Amino acid sequence: MLDSTALKNIPLFAYLSDAELAQLHPVLTERRLKAGDILFNMGDLGEELFIVREGRVAIYSPNPETPGNEQPIRIFDPGEALGEMALIDRQPRSLSARALEPAVLLALTGKEFHRLLGAHPELALSVMSGLSDRIRYTTEFLNEVRGWVQRVAAGKYDRTLGTNQGYADPSIAALAAEFTQMAAQVQQREEALRQEVLQLRIEIDDSKRKRHVEEITGSDYFQSLQQQARRLRSEQGEE
Q: Which of 155, 156, 173 has its CA nearest to residue 164?
């Protein structure tokens, strides 16, 4: 377990005094995860918040079609806290979390979290700062996604989207790569559909031509012309 000095380096507890950190130390429990282990699932009741001590943890939206291979929405590094939202709004977890590599976390129960907030209002500043960062991140994330969707909707399939080195957050870069792959698949399907429509038009035009020819050759007028032509050829042959 971390000592008070190490706890002081965690942003969430930066406002607490050494004496307060000493009181916090006994109520933190350590959680060890192997790579791929689930920390919590979407829909779970939020009863703890977690501070990453070692390793990295990702939050993601579970996909039953690709379990275990979902792209991270955000990655949490050592010193960062996650899971506090469910303790604040008392709602089920909105996303799932899993370890990307062997990880060690510190868990703080909701009861202890609210006790600390009541006893140390300055702790709320750390929580608000973390939530502000989360909102800012989400806003940037949504702006990126909106831009990608608009480009695809306009038929602009940018194959360099996923290799853009401007994305500082690796989870956004990973999502950009996946979105680029999806856009390429959409473009391929669109091109295949365009070719199918073109072929269908050719077949329809050919069918129309055949039908028109049949209508013409089957008409009484055309039959009369054929009879006249045969009669003329016959008369010319007799001459």
A: 173
Domains: count for the chain: 2
3-class state of residue 80 by DSSP: coil
The tens digit of pLDDT for each residue in 110-158 reads 888 888 777 777 666 666 666 666 667 667 767 777 776 777 666 666 6
Looking at residue 159, the DSSP 8-state letter turns out to be T
Distance set, CA 226 to CA 82, 137, 212, 216, 231 (Å)? 89, 81, 17, 12, 9
What does the alpha-carbon distance between residue 73 and residue 137 come to, in Å, rounded to a whole number?
A: 10
> Which strands form 96-99's sheet, in the order they lie side by side?
38-40, 96-99, 57-60, 74-76
Residue 107 near residue 50 (C-beta atoms within 8 A): yes
Residue 25 in tokens:
């130390």
In terms of C-beta distances under 8 Å and separation of at least 24 residues, what long-range contacts does 75-78 make, across chains too? Answer: 75/100, 75/169, 75/170, 75/171, 76/52, 77/52, 78/52, 78/53, 78/54
Start-to-end CA distance of the chain, whole Å, equals: 121
- Which conformational region is residue 64 in: left (phi greater than 0), alpha (psi within -120 to 50 degrees), or beta? alpha
Query: How do residues 168-192 score in pLDDT, each as one tens digit?
Result: 555 566 666 666 667 777 777 777 7
- Give the pairing type, strands 74-76 and 48-54: unpaired
Residues 47 and 145 in one domain: yes
**Which residue, 124, 156, 188, sits at the end of a domain?**
156
Asked whether the CA dihedral 47, 49, 52, 55 is positive or negative, the reply is positive
